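Hey team,

Filing this mostly as a record. A colleague (T.K.) asked me to run one chain through the structure pipeline before their review meeting, and I want the input and output archived in the tracker in case anyone asks later how it was produced. No errors, nothing strange. Just documentation.

Input sequence:
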Amino acid sequence: MIPSVAPRIALLLSLVTLLHGCREPSAPPPVELGVSEVLARHRAGTLSEVRYDIALQIPEDRGVPLEGRTTITFTWSDPEAHPVVLDFKDPTERVREVRVNGAAVRWAPKDDHVVMPPEAFRTGENVVEVTYQAGDEALNRSDDFLYTLFVPDRAHFSLPVFDQPNLKGRVAWEIEVPAGWVAVANGPDLRSPGPETWGEDGPEDRRLYRFASSRPIPTYLFAFAAGRFRVEEGERGGVRMRMFHRETDPDAVVRNRDAIFDLHQTALDWLEDYTGIEYPFQKFDFVLIPPFQYGGMEHPGAITYRQSSLMLDESATQADLLGRASLIAHETAHMWFGDLVTMNWFDDVWTKEVFANFMAAKIVHPSFPEVDHRLRFLLAHHPRAYGVDRTPGANAIRQPLANLRDAGTLYGAIIYQKAPVVMAHLERTVGEELFREGMREYLSTYAYGNATWPDLIAILDRRSEEDLARWSRAWVEEPGRPTLRIVLVEGTEGPAVVVRQEDRWGRGRLWPQTLELVGSWDGALERTSVKLDSAEAEAMEWAGRATPDWVIPMGAGIEYGLVLMPPSMLSALSADLNDLDARLRGAAWIVLHDAVLEERLAPGDLVDQALAALPRETDELVLDRILGILGSVYWRLLTEEERETRAVAVEDAVWSGVTRTTARTPTSRFSFFTAYRQLASTPEAVERLRRIWAREDSVPGLPLSETQEIQLAEALAVRGVEDAEALLDIQGDRIQNPDRRARFDFVRSSLSSDPAVREAFFQDLRDPARREREPWVLAGLSYLHHPLRRDHGATLVPAALELVEEIQATGDIFFPTGWLSSNLGMHNSPEVAGAVAAYLERHPDLPAPLRGKVLQAGDGVRRAARIVHGADAAPGWRAPG
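Output structure:
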């Protein structure tokens, strides 16, 4: 029962007085919204040996709340005898009773915490029992399934816990579900439920699942899923795996099942060999969720994936296949890096992500021997990292964090894409073997515990002669990227090739790294390395040589920075582009795209370069990069007149790639087809897509899945075909999978030709309940702001910006970035750039990490407005850091 109000208020006032009194050394940590670092540090020093037993009853009606009972056992040792603070959102409304060591206690709610009096506790083992109504905020409930997603600090949105990464605990789940549902959780099943009734007196339409206690894990990794899932079982290398999914197409399941199991086993084998540590948890299950917010989440014993990331279509591209393998390797690597050893605080969240991405890049090599994996590493990491590091909102890899409620702002391309590049630099600096030895010591020393980035640097520093602390300050603690300027300096023996590094923001920072330079003399290529640990470095081996046609400092594929070269070199590089090897072509396309964004190369020239390159490009990784650049520049950086002038040529070049059955692999042809669907704008191209969607025409060798037909229908509706509503009706009737149908129904009004209907879709998103399926929301926003609808989309931008702080508070970790990108990502007008500037001016106190996200997303609009509309079309913004 909920305690009466009056005594709770009196107790609350006394505890608040205690908690917010004088700040003597003996004062308790403050209790505030979220979990402060101060509170977390105090609890980590006074609580240990934490165990959770969580029992939940899941009703069949999603409108009925879950009822729960959690028993927390822990050792308490606090000489100051401060109150014990449990984290739980809205405890006044949700908590039924709190008992400590068997006795009911009078507790106080305070800013989403349950504050318990110290006199209820004893030094040594204590048991807290809480009965409550579970919060839906992190339970992701649908009519016939639900799943948890607690990262970074959302476990306490649904359950009473000590919600911080450095209080690891063992968790045992007991989950009662409706008949016909299955359940999976962190620990092993204690039994295999059958059709028997739940409990001795339980109703016959219920089932009970009990799961054994897990190994120690942080609360953000506590996980279960329950619902109407199909289950596939497999065994690889003695490891039993189960895959829970909702795919209704049996052919899709058969086509993907073995590859999914095989890729997991490949990752497990590689990681056990690399780390010298066996898989550290008791079982290996994974759950495929259609509307999952991320690609995957590393819950031990119950990894969660977005279903479409693993269940690939028959016409999947090489990028799709590589992406699936990398995602599986990434989440499996987390079992060691993040789950076995966890960061002490979320300021080091990047460490678990960088290790997962860095190791994943190594793991996928054997499965794709035909792929140049150094090229893939370059293209998978540098463009996206540069997309943040070039902006005035650039953030350091390691960022301060005072409260876990702001932890979501730390995530982004810098920790997922830049950090692996930096880790590659570190491995090259200390050597592969020394690096591996350091990783093994790190994992064995801190197994089932917590560690910091300085802990790892200290381990490696003992083995290395390099000043790794200095290196770490430059690359990990500071934002931005260096400018690598190629300069020809006349000397007594001829021209010298010099690389100068500059900090474009004028802070005088230097980034030490080794560069592999590639130079061309009349088509003859030569390589040399320079160690750039000061303001400039000369290519000594080239001293006295004739002037090279061009020099590119990215020969190893991991060098990092904005490459600037004289205009004559840029022109020569463009001319030689198609004759270079694939890795250099990939690097050159990155340099050329940067040159457009820096207004050193005309966007139309790059489009023409891409059209000339497409027929000759044979490497699928480079092909995908060219198509990506083509789409971005075509829609965003060309004037409307330039786009109309080139439309037919662009469509013809891309369609030619679709139809060249003898010169192209099926995977590359589908890359072309996807690009054609995205680029089509002329009546002829739109009509061709319509015939394919209507099944009046087809593309030989490229069968379309249900998902791809949906994408075609949506693309046609956005292009304003005359009978769009009838077309969408037909498409809705075609959809067999209930989850895909639910998504289609959700986004449909965003496809309308009526601006008022589209605006109503946007206005509905003000309701947090309408934002629960975040991937669906982002898809709908992309249709509202499609380049063909930019004028109307621009009117929605100011309101979208005003929702950013609420989105940060209520959404999952990637949603704020996705929200900003989807609302701003295709705009190029001075008006939208001005709207971003005005928003920032109106909100000078916007939290720095969130302000950075707005600056990152807004930078693309600002650059596009300047390029398309002139130098004075967009405001300037402050430097990062």
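Quick notes for T.K.: Residues 250-275 form the longest helix (26 residues). Confidence is low (pLDDT under 50) at residues 1-23, 194-202.
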